[in-house]
Amino acid sequence: MPSSSLLDKAAKSKYMDLKTFGITQAMYIWVDGSGQSLRCKTRSLDKEIKEISDLPMWNFDGSSTGQAEGSNSDCFLKPCAMFNDPFRGAPNKLVLCEVLSYKMEPVATNKRQTCQEVMARVKDDHPWFGIEQEYTLLDVDGHPFGWPKQGFPGPQGPYYCAVGTGNVYGREVVEAHYRACIYAGITISGTNAEVMPAQWEFQVGPCEGIKMGDHLWMARFLLHRVCEDFGVVASFDPKPMNGDWNGAGCHCNYSTEKMRLPGGFDEINNAVEKLSKRHNYHIQAYDPQGGKDNMRRLTGLHETSSIFDFSSGIANRQASIRIPRHVGEDKCGYLEDRRPSSNCDPYTVTEAIARTTILNEEGDIALELNY
Fold first, then answer.
1. Helix, strand or coil for residue 64?
2. Which of 51, 60, 59 minimizes the C-alpha distance to 24?
3. DSSP label at residue 125
4. Would you call 362 helix, strand, or coil by DSSP?
5. Do the Cβ atoms of 231 and 243 come closer than 8 Å?
6. Burial grade of 274 (CB within 10 A; 0-12, 13-18, 19 or more)
7. Given a cut of 80, is residue 370 above it in pLDDT?
8. What is the distance between the alpha carbons of residues 216 and 127, in angstroms, rounded to a whole number?
9. CA 193, CA 188: separation in Å to the nearest integer?
10. Bridge partners, residue 135, by sequence
11. Which of 189, 179, 245, 248 is CA-nearest to residue 216?
12. What phi and psi values does residue 302 have, to the nearest 5 degrees?
């Protein structure tokens, strides 16, 4: 597989320094028909873009992204969130878009619209979300970056939050991505090396309402784009390596205003009780395959709970819901839902949590999952 890292970056910089004479390049970005991958294309606009309303709708060939039939292939891109472009620099923009069908209705993988409707209904509760996005860096051959080509590194133990050659793999990518997110205007709050070598995590949030999904999807796009420059691949597979290796999750930290206020611990416990009664509903919402991807990860091993059972506890990383120890001591704060998979749709995750804990929706479903 050819790698863009083999191309001459110095040659490219000569062109990137050229004047654009008032033209703004706006890169439109959207989730494709897989519900996991991102697509993008760029248009020229003859003005500086200051508001999302300055951006026109656009279209694309939905038959090439799994979002339309070839006989009626036009889909529409509706700009919904705008970020600074760290690759082209000011005044250029990255534009996150919803995908609409030819009927101007959301396509199946456009989960943002229903999420936004729910967030509008719960806005007075001021729901905050913070998501811990785990991912794995792969070489272009699909093998974890830095691992011996015909074998494995030493067992897990020295890699989490590690430093030093042989303990960390790909820090250059992580640092570049962190700065790109800051420049773009994403609410990135931290990063660290994870338990499996070549596995990393970045945290986005706290974000209120719909912004959580917007910021996490754009942070994922930036990671893929940074990886292009370094000739590596970012994988959001929840269990990229079989065996005694940790999987990858997308833990969702969550609170409402009442939970954050003094004495909010009762509100947290109430939310946990509501979540316990809809475990299967949430499992189905927490990965794009309705739980099948997460089944490889949520085994009860490697700091996970069982996919078939709900559990909760203070400082328990093998529970479905973890209450941080300091929250238990302060009697207010937030909870951590550890069930979402690394390839989840954050719009679906946050919508499901709001529906269950704020709108008090009830009723569970039956899951047909087998090992």
1. helix
2. 51
3. G
4. coil
5. no
6. middle
7. no
8. 16
9. 15
10. 200
11. 189
12. 55, 50
Q: How far is CA 319 from the centre of its chain?
A: 21
**How long is the chain?**
371
pLDDT tens by residue, 235-282: 999 999 999 999 999 999 999 999 999 999 999 999 999 999 999 999
d(CA 153, CA 138): 14
Rounded CA gap, 250 and 54, in Å? Answer: 33
The whole-angstrom separation of Cα 49 and Cα 51 is 6
185 close to 83: Cβ distance less than 8 angstroms: yes
User: What confidence tens digit (pLDDT) does each residue in 198-239 have?
Assistant: 999 999 999 999 999 999 999 999 999 999 999 999 999 999
CB within 8 Å of 295: residues ≥ 6 apart: 307, 369, 371
Bigger pLDDT: 13 or 173?
173
> Mind giving me the DSSP string for 1-18?
---GGGS-HHHHHHHHTS
In angstroms, the CA 115 to CA 48 distance is 30
46-62 burial code (b ≥16 CB/10 A, e <16): eeebeeeeebeebebeb
* E strand or H helix that includes residue 250: strand 250-255
DSSP 254-303: EE-HHHHSTTTHHHHHHHHHHHHTTHHHHHHHTSTTTTHHHHTT-BS-SS
Give the Å distances, CA to CA, from 123 to 118, 157, 275: 9, 42, 20
Give the position of tokens 């070489």: 139
Instruction: Please give the Cα distance from 81 to 215 (Å, whole number).
Output: 9
Strands 74-84 and 58-61: antiparallel
CB atoms within 10 A of CB 258: 17
Read off the DSSP letter of residue 221: H
Residue type (1 letter), 33: G
